[in-house]
Specification:
The chain contains nine helices and 30 strands. The strands form seven sheets. A seven-stranded mixed β-sheet has the order 5-4-1-6-12-8-13. 19% of the residues lie in helices and 25% in strands. It holds the Pfam family NTP_transferase.
């Protein structure tokens, strides 16, 4: 693939919906199987032919992220851009902080979240975007049905569904509301009914947070003089604004009434301004200025964002059966060849064991994920659980249906728990349905 596009992976998010999982580890480096979460979108981009990827990370994480290519056998060069997260910036704020990293020669910008795990063929998304002359293409998919229940106390496990409205047949995006931006109902404006084609309104379709934008539109989004200047969220604020701009009346300067639409004359001025700094693209002509064309690429296959405890748990529990689907054409092995499993240990076929891990004798591991550089001491029983990297389990521990991201150095029984602080564990005690949290020291 000719390098017409620049790829940006947004990996600076603190993971505020992940409870205490991100106390000491940024969300993008949390393990999914035996790989950091960030590896999955990087591999997706690699499969589409990208040789270089810009990764936006929070301060202090640049060295860890920069080493990932060598550590995990990736074949892309990473340009790591650091942003300050001191004031909890939104996705659009992060992009503004690294605007200088965007090359002037590219025709399109691909923006993807670091928590996306999917088997979509990204090249197909790019091909549709170009062949149909889109200015913005959003990847959508059915809202995933999660059949696993995460450990810990019972709580609301996910956000409300996104509301996506498209034109029947064309896939043109005409309305979008992020799941976190409404409570129980959404009011649709009557101007939507002015569309000539039938509309498909869905509360079971998700915005997967993968976008392809023409360069001029990306410049418009980031420019301080555009209406987007005060918008912090790409998904919740800027996208609805861009979508509404499609509905400027061609016969007059009047808006059709959708929220955020700009006047036709103002829009034309903005397009001319932002296109003037871009090498003309064979996919876009300046001769006939039009409001943006916003399309969806609907992928019916696997598409899950690991941005909540529920989805993170689900992906880890299913990673053994999903791995070849979401990480194709890779030599990476879920049961790493450097893992040492003593002969008298029992490890089920569907369990995952990371590199450098030691599984001692008389240990039983069933349907579990064990991260890299762990030590499972003798007489441990581990079932239906997920262990992070560098975790040690004391001899005789019984762990069931739990997420363990800190060492358990005292013999105990842990069922249906989340453990991120080893100091919370007492010898001989039984824990059930609890969150044993670490002290927060990662922003």
């Amino acid at each position: 693939m000719r390098q017409e596009a620049q790829a940006i992976v947004l990996a600076a998010g603190p993971g505020m919906r992940m409870t205490s999982l991100t106390s000491h580890t940024p969300k993008c480096l949390l393990p999914l199987g035996t790989l950091p979460m960030l590896c999955y979108p990087l591999h997706l981009l690699q499969q589409a032919g990208f040789s270089e990827v810009s990764v936006v990370v929070s301060e202090g994480q640049e060295q860890r992220v920069g080493k990932m290519v060598e550590q995990y056998g990736l074949k892309v060069d990473l340009d790591v851009a650091v942003v300050s997260t001191a004031h909890d910036p939104g996705t659009a704020d992060s992009l503004r902080q690294i605007a200088s990293k965007i090359k002037r020669s590219v025709e399109e910008v691909v923006v993807i979240s670091s928590d996306l795990v999917t088997d979509v063929a990204l090249q197909d998304v790019l091909d549709q975007h170009r062949s149909r002359g889109a200015d913005l293409t959003m990847l959508t998919s059915p809202t995933p049905s999660l059949q696993t229940t995460p450990p810990g106390p019972k709580s609301k496990t996910h956000l409300n569904s996104d509301i996506i409205c498209t034109e029947a047949g064309s896939g043109r995006l005409v309305y979008a509301v992020a799941g976190g931006d409404y409570d129980e109902c959404v009011t649709l404006q009557s101007s939507l009914l002015n569309c000539a084609a039938p509309l498909l309104l869905s509360a079971s379709t998700q915005d997967a947070h993968l976008y392809v934008m023409k360069r001029w539109l990306f410049d418009y989004v980031l420019n301080k003089e555009s209406p987007c200047a005060d918008m912090g969220s790409l998904k919740a604020e800027i996208l609805p604004h861009i979508v509404s701009c499609q509905f400027t009346d061609h016969s007059s300067n009047d808006k059709l009434g959708l929220s955020g639409a700009v006047e036709r004359e103002e829009w034309d001025d903005l397009v001319k301004k932002y296109n003037s700094s871009v090498v003309p693209s064979r996919h876009h002509s300046l001769a006939h200025l039009q409001p943006p064309v916003c399309l969806t690429f609907h992928h019916p296959g696997l598409c899950v964002r690991a941005n909540t405890l529920h989805t993170y748990w689900h992906l880890n529990r299913k990673i053994n059966e999903l791995f070849n689907q979401v990480y194709p054409n890779s030599e990476w092995q879920l049961r790493h060849p450097t893992a040492v499993i003593i002969e008298r240990a029992q490890v089920s076929e569907d369990s995952v064991v990371g590199g450098g891990t030691m599984v001692c004798e008389k240990t039983n591991i069933a349907s579990s994920v064990v991260g890299k550089h762990c030590r499972i001491n003798p007489l441990v029983r581990l079932s239906s659980s997920v262990l992070g990297d560098h975790v040690t389990l004391a001899s005789g521990c019984v762990i069931e249906n739990s997420l363990i991201l800190a060492s358990v150095e005292r013999k105990c029984v842990i069922k249906n728990c989340i453990v991120t602080d080893s100091n919370k564990i007492e010898e001989g005690k039984t824990y059930s349905g609890e969150v044993l949290e670490a002290t927060q020291d990662f922003a």
